[in-house]
Amino acid sequence: MGEVYRAVDTELKREVAIKILPAAFAFDPDRLARFQREAELLASLNHSNIAVLYGLEVADHTRAIVMELVSGTDLSDRISKGPIPLGQALPIARQIADALDTAHQAGVMHRDLKPSNIKLRADGTIKVLDFGLAKAIEGAGEAGRAGEAGRAGRPPPGKAGWAGRAGEERLRPLPPILFSAAMGDDPVVARLFRDIAH
User: Fold this and answer.
1) How many CB atoms lie within 10 A of CB 65?
2) Does residue 192 share a domain with residue 105?
3) Between the N and C ends of the chain, which has fewer C-beta atoms within 10 Å?
4) CA 5 to chain centre
5) 40: exposed, middle or buried (Cβ count in 10 Å: 0-12, 13-18, 19+)
C-alpha cells in the first residue's frame, strides 16, 4: 500500500526512497492507521539486511515514509535470468533468514516476503523491503503493541495459517524463495507461492 519514489534529502544531501500514501486514502481512517503502523513496525527494526527507516513526514494531508534508498536489483529479476549458483544462493539465504529472525525477535512478522521484496546489491548484500503487510506478534518485543497491518483481497505468504506458531511462520516463505533461486524462474515456483498463500 503506497507509491514509492526516488528523491533527494536536501538537508542531508542524500538520496532516499519515499513511500507516499495515495491521495485516495488520505482521509481513510483504516488506511491511515495501517500506514502509521507500518512506519512504527519498521522503526522498531535495526538490522543490516533490512531497509532503514529515516522518518514519517506529514504535510497537507500527505503522509510519507522516508527510508533508505537501496541500490541493486530485485531478487525476482535476478531469478528470471536463471539459477543462482549455490555459492551465491547460500549467503543470500543466510541474510534473509537473519533479517527475518531479527524482525521476529523484535515482535514483527513480515507476511509478504517474496523475491520482488528482496533487493540484491552488487556486493552481494540483500535488503528485505516492504513491511506494508507486517504484523506485530502479540506479546513479543516492543513492536508487539503496534497492532496489525494488512491489504484487502490478497492473503500474503506469511499470513496463511497464522495461528500463533510464530517461530515457524516467520520462515515459511523462505523455502520456495530458495528453491526459486536455485532453480531459476519456473512455473512450479509460482504454484508453490500460491499454495503457501492459501
Assistant:
1) 24
2) yes
3) C
4) 16
5) buried
pLDDT of 90-112, one tens digit each?
999 999 999 988 988 888 888 78
Amino acid letter for position 99: A
Q: Are 132 and 114 in contact (CB under 8 A)?
A: no
Regarding whether 127 and 55 lie in a shared domain, the answer is no
Residues spanned by the domain of 61: 3-68
Catalytic residue check, 9: no
Residue 63 C-alpha cell reads as 503522509
Same domain, 62 and 89: no
Task: Provide the number of structural domains found in the chain.
Answer: 2
Q: What do you get for the CA distance between the two ends of the chain, in Å?
A: 21
Catalytic hit among 28, 30, 77, 112: 112
3-state secondary structure (DSSP) of residue 105: helix
Closest CA to 127 of 151, 156, 154, 95: 95
Chain segment 2-38, per-residue pLDDT in tens: 789 999 999 999 999 999 998 888 899 998 998 998 8
The Cα 189–Cα 26 span in angstroms is: 37
DSSP string, 60-101: TTEEEEEEEPPPSEEHHHHHHT-PPPHHHHHHHHHHHHHHHH
Lookup: cell for 141: 518485543
Q: How far apart are CA 96 and CA 186, in angstroms?
A: 21
Q: What is the pTM of this model?
A: 0.73
